[in-house]
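>> received
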Amino acid sequence: AVLSMLGAAACGTPAGKVDVLQSSTTSVAPGSTYAWAPISSASQRASDPRVANDIIQQRIVSAVDSALAGKGFRRVSDPAQATLLASYHVGLEARSDIQSTGMGAPPVACGFRGCVSGWGLYGPPALNVDTIHYTEGTMILDLVDRASGQLAWRATSQRRVDSGDADQARLNAVAADMVKSLPGVGG
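>> returned
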């Protein structure tokens, strides 16, 4: 648990590393209307059973709706009436890092004739090697221009995650972080 908190703290933001792609031909106008792109099941958004369920799906949709509303975008229920279609995809991947730390330089014995390395007397310095297992989470949020069907904007968030990251407050913070680059109404 401590390691995942350190990983999250190292990222600096709730969404971790966020990459944004914006189309040079299709723009996202401040205050646009959006609807969720139709899907046949939650499994199209995520295949991992830890996130491919109605509870997580509702939390992510709520978080994104709140973040987009904060930027002045308005949700409509009928996709045919929307300027933009929103969709998301979530993936989880088990990862490992190997970390090694030295336990100092070899001991040295010094006297009036100079210093002698302790390698021969005490052996080599100690080396500590640890394998850290963690889960890397990726969330992709897309806004597609409904009229042309072209991707207008995409944010990708990557960070270490744990079960606490499925909490509504954390998802709200991640979604808000991801939409920062979108134009807002009045700004």
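>> The two ends are 39 Å apart (CA to CA).
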